[in-house]
Each structure stands twice: as C-alpha cells, then as structure tokens.
C-alpha cells in the first residue's frame, strides 16, 4: 500500500512538472502582428478584436506593428516565430500575391491559415471633374486611348492594385498604373485629378462621396456595401470576374500544431460573431466573414492559382 501511494505521489509530481510549462505557455502574451500602419483596414480589425480575444483566451492580446514590403516583413517574422500559436499575423488577401512575387522571402507554405476575420468592400471612384458618368464611360475612354488613363493604387501587390488588375483584364483595357506609398496617397491622386480612377475601401471614401468630392461608379467587391447600397458591382454592370475579395485573415507559422490552429480558428470565429464586434465592424465599413480552416485553405489555394495568371498577364514583379 505504501509502495502504491509512493508511486501515485511520484506520478503526480511528474504530471505537475510536465504541466507547468504548458500552464506557463498559455499565459504568454498573444501578438497580433500587423504589417501595415495603424488606421489601415487590417490593423483596425486587429485592434477591434484584441479585447474580445483576451477575454476568451485568458491571455493578454496586443497588436504589434512590423512595417515594410507590403506586409512581407511581418509575415516573414511570424513564419519564423516560436510555433506556439501566440504570434499571429493579421494579413489581407494581398498575401496570395505577395507569396508569388517575393519568392525566397515569403512562400505560401511558410504560413498556416487560421481564420478569416472580415471582408472589406471596395469601390471604383473617380473625380467629378472627369467626364466619366458610368463604368461604361470609363471603359470606352480607356479603349479609345490605350494607356492614356491613369489608375492609381496603394502599392504594387496591394488589394487596391489587384482589384484594378482584375477589372482591367475583365474590361479588356490597358491603363497606366501608378502605385503610391499608401491608401491616402493613392486617393490624393484621384482627388487632385492627376489619376482617373482608384479602387479604395469604401470606408476610406464615404466622406468624400457624401461631400461630392468623389463619384462612385461601381463596387469592386463581390457584393454591394451596406454603406453604398445603391451602387452596383462591376460584375452586375457586365464585367464578369472583375470583382476582388479583399479579405482580412489570421495566419500563423506553418510549424504550429494543427490542433492549435483549429483551437485558434474556433476562438477567432467566436469573437468575430459577437454582436459588439459586428457593430464595430459596421462603423468602419467592414463585414464579418468566418470560415473553417479547410475552407480558408481552399480559398487561398484558389486565389494563388488565379493570381498566378494575373501576375503573368499583367507583368507584376
């Protein structure tokens, strides 16, 4: 009996020793790594989720900015982080292009998809000083003068750039693409009339649209926006495959165990579905989007295939 008690005691000690690191691990700070500046769509979504996730996980959750190369520096950092699930990048659909045009720096296989967090509707805007009253007017002008129209973006590989390329290819037009250093700079080019059109997120231009400083010709996203319900999509206007899904998602190092990825997926999906999160999303023109891990993986695989064709046709590098 004494030998049995001793064995049980030894087992309990060993169990405690092995459990201690796991308990300490769960108390680590969770870092939502953002590769863009505060105020950007994905960075804002990350900040909205911190408090809710912290409550659910029982861990401190913070946003950590690591800027540069359109999110690639942040992604590379997360890919090499300790694979414990506590270092998570909040990236956008730009990931499926960055992984194609930055070989050696970032590979799609370096990161494991965890959860989709939302989708951001985009809109084709122009200046009221321009003669375009419809998407058809814009396309006709571009066809009459190949590369005569100027289209701006927030940078090569950005969601605004990819929206432009999908629309351009679908419409069968050639334009002069002028990438800028960020969303605001791209918008300035249109407001001043130096650029003909741009595909910014809706939330970034609602004010200018209401003031008449910009004109919305069509939605660049797969569906209409609650903020601009009367503006049809470019697909509705007759340009199939011209839409772009500007999603925001969470990814971790590919070395993170699958069970950890699945647990994080459940936590993110729960947080995104919360009424208070939906309400805060609505204020910034972002719509909730939740998927299972396999669904997110399938979406990324499909986008990588589609973007590979766009990269080749548009000569993006």
Can I get a quick summary?
With 317 residues, this protein is an alpha/beta fold. It has helices spanning 2-26, 41-57, 72-79, 95-101, 135-144, 159-171, 183-191, 206-210, 258-273, 275-283, 293-314; strands at 30-34, 61-65, 87-92, 111-119, 123-126, 150-153, 176-179, 215-219, 247-253.
Q: How far is the first residue's CA from the last residue's CA?
A: 74 Å
CA-based gyration radius: 23 Å
CATH homology group of the largest domain: Bordetella uptake gene, domain 1
Low-confidence stretches: 1-25
How large a portion of the residues is in β-strands, by DSSP E?
A: 15-25%
Query: What topology, given as strand order, has the largest sheet?
Result: 2-1-3-9-4
Task: Note the main sheet.
Answer: 5 strands, mixed
Count of DSSP-assigned helices: 11
Structural class: alpha/beta
Q: What is the share of helical residues?
A: 40-55%
Question: Would you identify the CATH architecture of the largest domain?
Answer: 3-Layer(aba) Sandwich
- Give a count of the beta strands, DSSP E runs of length 2 or more: 9
The CATH topology of the largest domain: D-Maltodextrin-Binding Protein, domain 2
Series of H and E elements: HEHEHEHEEHEHEHHEEHHH
What value does the average pLDDT take? 90
Counting copies of identical and different chains, the oligomeric state is: single chain
Identify the overall geometry: globular
Number of domains: 2
Which class of the largest domain in CATH terms?
A: Alpha Beta
């Amino acid at each position: 009996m004494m030998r049995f008690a001793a064995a049980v005691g030894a087992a309990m000690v060993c169990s405690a020793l092995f459990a201690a690191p796991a308990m300490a691990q769960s108390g680590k700070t969770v870092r939502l790594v953002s590769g863009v500046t505060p105020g950007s769509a994905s960075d804002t979504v990350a900040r909205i989720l911190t408090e809710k996730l912290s409550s659910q996980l029982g861990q401190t959750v913070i946003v950590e900015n690591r800027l540069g190369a359109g999110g690639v520096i942040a992604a590379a950092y997360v890919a090499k982080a300790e694979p414990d699930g506590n270092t998570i990048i909040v990236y956008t659909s730009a990931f499926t292009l960055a992984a194609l045009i930055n070989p050696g720096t970032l590979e799609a296989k370096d990161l494991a998809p965890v959860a989709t967090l939302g989708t951001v509707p985009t809109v084709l805007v122009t200046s009221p000083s321009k003669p375009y009253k419809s998407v058809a007017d814009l396309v006709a002008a571009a066809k009459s003068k190949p590369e005569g129209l100027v289209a701006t973006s927030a940078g090569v590989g950005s969601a605004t750039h990819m929206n432009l390329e999908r629309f351009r290819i679908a419409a069968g037009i050639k334009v002069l693409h002028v990438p800028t250093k960020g969303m605001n700079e791209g918008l300035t080019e249109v407001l001043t009339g130096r650029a003909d059109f741009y595909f910014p997120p809706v939330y970034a231009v609602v004010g200018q649209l209401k003031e008449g400083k910009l004109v919305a010709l069509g939605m660049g996203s797969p569906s209409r926006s609650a903020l601009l319900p009367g503006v049809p999509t470019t697909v509705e206007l007759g340009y199939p495959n011209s839409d772009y899904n500007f999603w925001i998602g969470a990814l971790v190092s590919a070395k993170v165990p699958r069970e950890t990825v699945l647990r994080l997926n459940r936590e993110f999906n729960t947080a995104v579905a919360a009424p208070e999160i939906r309400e805060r999303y609505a204020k910034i023109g972002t719509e909730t989007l939740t998927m299972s891990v396999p669904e997110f993986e399938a979406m990324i695989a499909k986008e990588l295939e589609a973007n590979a064709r766009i990269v080749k046709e548009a000569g993006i590098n």
